[in-house]
Amino acid sequence: MTDGNGRKIEYLRVSVTDKCNFRCRYCMPKEGIRHLQHQDVLSFEEIRRLAEIMKDMGVRKIRLTGGEPLVRKGVVSLVSMLPGAVYMTTNGCMLPEYAGALKEAGLCGVNISLDTLDRNTFCKLTGRDELDLVLRGINAAREAGLPVKLNCVPIKGINEGEIEALCDFAARMQLDIRFIELMPIGCMHDLTGIPSDEIIKKLGTDSLEPIEDADTLAGPAQYFKMRGFATRIGFISPMSHRFCNVCNRIRLTADGYLKTCLQYATGADLRALLRGGADDKAIWDAIESAVRNKPSAHTFGSCDGSDIRRMVQIGG
Ligand code: SAM
Ligand code: SF4
Q1: Strands 85-90 and 109-113
Q2: Ligand 1 centroid, distance to 311 Cα (angstroms)
């Protein structure tokens, strides 16, 4: 499946819930969100049907996200229902309980959000005193044999002094870590992100060796090897180095809306089709048409036409 700008769409992010047990300041508005009613959320069978159609259209990788995907009851069974390679992005705190079952269900890997190693900062940022649980979750995922990557959003005055410590932690744990630039999606008006170049400078270009193999060049992250370590440090820079020209992803919200760009509301209401009795051909056509109209690029900063959904409702 190719969009109107010739980009081949191969990657689907599926938000399985808009609920979360954390309240990260950069993701969830202070006042919270109005949650979807149970009947408005796609069932696993509906997600499976859409995923099967999209697999036939060329999607080869699915990432389950949320809210927090592991708060959705039974999500482990969804992993085994879906075609292609299935991954998950999680805050990690339920991995001590679920890592083994996720591996058995066929999950290919987890990205775990870890913005700080300091208990107080963690509490302030997430609203929960659960750093220890997240660290146990990281261990549980590794012990279960799941490939793990860490995701960190650098924020001025919050975790900017911890970048080296987070890199050391990742290196000691033999895990890749990616720094994601803070995006203005709804609720981070009092927070200021740190551009990737600033972090690269801070870490020192002498200690970083660029990696430019086919695998790393294919994704949005720019990767480096920390000299002396086997693991990689990645930078995802939607703000300072837009990578929209190679964007190969689409998103499905928990209520079945196909979002073709992280910023804009452009897309298609697939739930209405599913529940209106549409056949696979009609759903295929709706997906194809939405993808054809995928915006060519985001324009974060000028908010014209931005989606009103918050990050917790989109899934990153
Ligand atoms: N709850 C899971 C988690 O925290 O990993 C999955 C959902 S979360 C919305 C997915 C990713 O989006 C996380 O890595 C999180 O750090 C990132 N994220 C959330 N809000 C963001 C923002 N405003 N800018 C950049 N990344 C953000
Ligand atoms: Fe934090 Fe993820 Fe929950 Fe957002 S969805 S509040 S990033 S744990």
Answers
A1: parallel
A2: 7
Cα 3 to ligand 1 centroid, rounded to whole Å? 25
Task: Please report, for the chain, the start and end positions of each structural domain, with discontinuous segments joined by +.
Answer: 11-314
Contact (CB, 8 A) for 148 and 138 = yes
pTM over 0.90: yes
By CB atoms closer than 10 A (0-12, 13-18, 19+), residue 121 is middle
Q: Which atom of ligand 1 is nearest to the CA of 184?
A: 23
Confidence class for position 247, pLDDT limits 50, 70, 90? very high
Question: How far apart, in whole angstroms, are the C-alpha atoms of residue 120 and residue 106?
Answer: 35
Percentage of the chain modeled with pLDDT above 70: 96
Tokens encoding 196: 């990737």
Q: The domain 11-314 belongs to what CATH superfamily?
A: Aldolase class I (3.20.20.70)
Rounded CA separation 50/59 (Å): 11
The pair of three-digit structure tokens given for residue 58, joined into one six-digit string: 């060329």
